[in-house]
Structure to design on (280 residues):
């Protein structure tokens, strides 16, 4: 089969699973992944005969897409801040909002002599992103899931950064030290929202990383409760939050131990981040 014929075949087979703009992006990613051809090379090689084995592998990927398996899991890669991260069903696929969280920290934390902790690291995209975009003395990350930690460790090696990973259930345990910055994108989806999630999310992505059991504020309350064990005096929280829970999250800081509580919006103007300074 020639490349031009394949492109038309892919458009026909995938048109019902996504909109036209995302469809073309999916096709570009598939062609790059299986045949190593970028967008310009595709335009110049429409008459290129394609390897049959690769075509069969691509067809399997198409079958999985038609079953609503996310493309990132199919190819085992997700681009975050422009870097290729390995992903599988043990971790959430990194979202653009979380890229904004990393850049928020990098823009405000300009001192290099600080220690940073990411809580609930998943694929490791936050601490690794901070290691790539910032310059900090220490970056550590904890995660309750052993399978997720394995993915994060692969990414630490893949992207050649210095990030220490360790297993910890933050709801039951405490880190062995304090930090200057604690960043987290914890589970915060409402349980009732799970039914309305897109099929590819609720069937393939780990629900434990999306929704805490019955309490969307659970992890935020816990981090505030153990702030004395998490943060040095003057230390900072940086959190990603549910867009409908901004005021509720900020209200959790209604005590004398914190100052400078800020609710910040993402690129779409939605309440998405909360920061606070620990003063006790």
């Amino acid at each position: 089969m020639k490349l031009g014929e394949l492109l038309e075949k892919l458009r026909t087979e995938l048109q019902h699973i996504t909109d036209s703009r995302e469809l073309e992006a999916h096709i570009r990613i598939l062609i790059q992944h299986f045949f190593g051809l970028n967008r310009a090379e595709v335009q110049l090689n429409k008459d290129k005969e394609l390897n049959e084995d690769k075509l069969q592998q691509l067809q399997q990927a198409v079958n999985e897409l038609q079953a609503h398996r996310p493309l990132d899991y199919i190819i085992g890669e997700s681009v975050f801040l422009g870097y290729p991260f390995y992903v599988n069903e043990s971790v959430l696929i990194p979202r653009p909002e979380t890229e904004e969280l990393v850049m928020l920290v990098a823009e405000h934390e300009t001192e290099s002599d600080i220690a940073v902790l990411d809580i609930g690291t998943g694929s490791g995209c936050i601490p690794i992103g901070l290691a790539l975009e910032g310059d900090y003395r220490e970056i550590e990350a904890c995660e309750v899931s052993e399978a997720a930690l394995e993915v994060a460790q692969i990414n630490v090696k893949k992207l050649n950064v210095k990030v220490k990973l360790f297993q910890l259930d933050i709801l039951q345990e405490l880190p062995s030290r304090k930090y200057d910055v604690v960043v987290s994108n914890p589970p915060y989806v409402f349980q009732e929202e799970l039914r309305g999630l897109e099929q590819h999310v609720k069937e393939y992505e780990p629900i434990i990383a999306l929704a805490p059991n019955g309490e969307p504020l659970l992890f935020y309350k816990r981090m505030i409760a153990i702030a004395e064990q998490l943060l040095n005096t003057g230390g900072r929280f940086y959190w990603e939050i549910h867009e409908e829970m901004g005021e509720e999250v900020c209200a959790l800081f209604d005590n004398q131990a914190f100052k400078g509580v800020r609710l910040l919006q993402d690129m779409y103007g939605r309440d998405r981040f909360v920061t606070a300074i620990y003063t006790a």
